[in-house]
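The aim of this short unit is practical: by the end, you should be able to scan a pair of folded records and say something sensible about each. We start with the first protein, listed as its amino acid sequence and then its structure tokens.
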Amino acid sequence: MNTAGRVGLAGLAVVACTASIAGCAASDEGGDGGGAESQKITVWSWDLNAEETADAFMAENPDVDVEVVNVGTGNDQYVALQNAISAGEGFPDVAFIENYALPQFALTGALADLGPLGADGLASTYAPGPWASSKVNDVVYSLPWASGPMVLFYNQAIFDRLDVAVPGTWDEYVTAAQQIQQADPAVYILNDVGNAGLAESLIWQAQGTPFSVEGEAVAIDLADDEGTQRYADVWQRLIDEDLLAPVADWTDDWTKMLNEDQIATLPAGSWMGSTLTQAVTEGAGKWRVAQLPEWEDGVATSAEHGGGGFTILEGSDHKDLAFEFAEFATAGGGVEILKERGLWPSSIDAANDEAFLSEPSEYFGGQAVNEEYATASANVPDTFQFLPFQVYANGIYNDTVGQAYNHSVTVAEGFANWQDSLDTYGAQQGFTIQ
């Protein structure tokens, strides 16, 4: 399972950072950041694929030692990383950071600008969506690794049994949700109890731009942004009619419902395919992959959902070697490791590998699912931005928008409450809120 995607779905609590925006920068103590290269680097990542990637890198570079350290998944790592940065010691050379959390570390000065290290020449190496997500204020801070082009996973057996058409638009998705419940009240089109990562990605797919960041100036528009309004309208209809299973992702109940054919679709990043094959064994041969329902009939768009890349700490004394590892992981031998694990690499070469694209998946009934991932990856708008405090934002999502699920507020009202909280927090952190 791609844990990067998992954390993105689940939503995170706020990263502990009490320092000022400038004061969170990593310390250069102990070296000049560009002096004699050590042959050892430390990588922080919770993804098991990082260990195998490090082994492959060391096999090609026998004089190099790469230590991979798991200090915790997602938010646990971010808290540990921030604490080490604030202390000026104990931080790694390389850290895997999810796309939505990247600005929070980049804008503090904690991460190195990868352009001078070689990233400026790599723009054509990665798919447009992941490449755009690797930059903050047009500066490259990350080499994108495992990508999450968003598709619709659907249980074909459910749709066949209940005689419901697989939806091609989001209006049809609401209709299909109604028809599924009418035909079998034990089955839902989707589970959702408030999911910041899912909402952000679907707003992205709707070509929404609710967040805008330029330097320390932040603009938040969760009221009039067209993509946000589209999402709010569809989700309000799903909530009003109790068409969503009240079960959180990654719980035992969620896995049980999937195995018992009680959840019909999962709009998610491509990494969900790996999750299904491992956790939903009863679904083998039943599930298929399609492009996301369209917000406008005939206009195909997707989004990134989950995924992230390797960053280099500004305080690292071994930036050149760290960059060599990051490039190997994301555009070299590490790409093959991701492909073997059923994950979608950010490297654009994967989209041009005909054998990889046409490879049939037994779990998905012989479908060449990689072709669907490639199509989705090519249809990701590059205009979406995350907040420089997105980790905090996702952490309070259920306190605001999430209240719509118990009918305390409407989805639109929840977005307004979310914006009020984010405006206040951003100003407290020293950003200029516009």
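Turning to the second protein, read its sequence before its tokens, just as you did above.
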Amino acid sequence: MVIFGSRLFGKVDEIPGLGFVATKFGHINFVPLIPLEGWLVTAEEGDGWRGQAIPMSGKSVLVAWARFLFIVAGLISLVVGFVAFGDHEQTDAIVPGVLALSCIAGLIASYKWKWVTHASPERAMEIAREAGIGEEGLDQLRRMYAASEAATVAVPAQPWTPPES
């Protein structure tokens, strides 16, 4: 059975309180093939989503394809490694094993690294403008990012002074 249609892939650039960027792809059997349009997704409901169409994000497209390649290359190298290991050729299983682990690490990193998953303040403002967010919303976004940056700024170290006796 062949499943085809369109769906979102490449979730990146999350903006807290607003949504995230994804790309609508034409797919066959859930393999993202043809990028169709970019979306700022504001809500997901079951198999559907709500949001605003925006210009396509190259980052989202590349992340979608990279995640797919990590899965395919990881599975192939895992099978090749098991076959080589089963033939008692442990040295031949090292390269596929390392490749499989690298693919697993790359896949996990694509979902965990903040520079992939979360929008920088500048990128968040760009996305909001592309989605047609008004000035009031842009001001709220600026304040939110300013508050989060202020919270992460470290307090400078104070010189140590010995207690008075």
